[in-house]
UniProtKB/TrEMBL annotation:
Entry keyword set: DNA-binding, Transcription, Transcription regulation
Lineage: Bacteria, Pseudomonadati, Pseudomonadota, Alphaproteobacteria, Acetobacterales
Domain HTH lysR-type: 6-63
Organism: Gluconacetobacter diazotrophicus
Similarity comment: family membership: Belongs to the LysR transcriptional regulatory family.
Annotated protein name in UniProt: LysR family transcriptional regulator
Molecular function terms, GO-annotated: DNA binding; DNA-binding transcription factor activity
Pfam families attached to this UniProt entry: HTH_1, LysR_substrate
Amino acid sequence: MEQSHVSLDRMRTFVRIAERGNLAAVARETGAGQSTITRHLRELEEALGVSLLTRTTRRTALTEEGTRYYAQCLNILCLVEQASQEMRQTRQATAGTVRISCTAALGVLHVSRLIFAFQDQNPGIRVEFSLTDERVDLVREGVDIAIRLGPLTDSSMKLRALGESQRVLVAAPDWLHRNGPLKRPEDLRDREGVRLSRVHGSDRLVLQAPKGKHHVVPFHGRLNVDHGLAAREAFLAGRGFGPAHRWLVEDCLQDGRLDLVLPNYRLPPAPLSMLIAPERASLTRVRLCANFLGSEIAKIPGIGR
């Protein structure tokens, strides 16, 4: 007989027979037929190669081997139940670790503060916060939640749309003073730009006029950067003009360190999304964190629904 017949179900059947002393009683208790109970016991004994019970017409008793095996089965079944209970408690717990990956500039300027607020409300939850503009594999990297800008194609992840990130053209006031006046998209053709090198289509600007007409303008410059915070510093230093997410430069626009370029023209927004590893989504701590971040990120200036 194959060892596969030594299963938890057959162990449970044997334990109940040993405790009740009657196969018919166990059959009634479990809702199985007595023939099924008898077969399970026979297959278990054949798999183990020993007799576990002595049976007469009046009573069922444990053999010496059955007594030892009964004690071992109790320990095994207790450990299985304990492990299952711990997993149920873990799934419901508001303690433990949540691993979050986020687009770097957004994470530094905004999401980090949201995580501080989340932990203030949930002091038992640890957060591992990774900042990268690379598209990480959530399962391979052990990430619970990823916040990403731009189109996403990973259909295996649970996706939650957070809104659209508005984009604007900006420059420092002194740069505008040196390079103005700029009134039409055509005026931007020969101006020095600051480009984000890893953004698809960053060699051109697509601008929508107030009446809906689209203008495509070549975009170039001597400085290419691969990080939004570096582009922000370049704008502030007067190194050129360029597109930026509103949340990246809102404080600079408010205090006058940067100005809008062609404010009547619109740049296409970028989708902002949250990815959640499906096997982690039902954990209470992950669900709480995802819901909190989803609600609060929508309030960041420049994030629209």
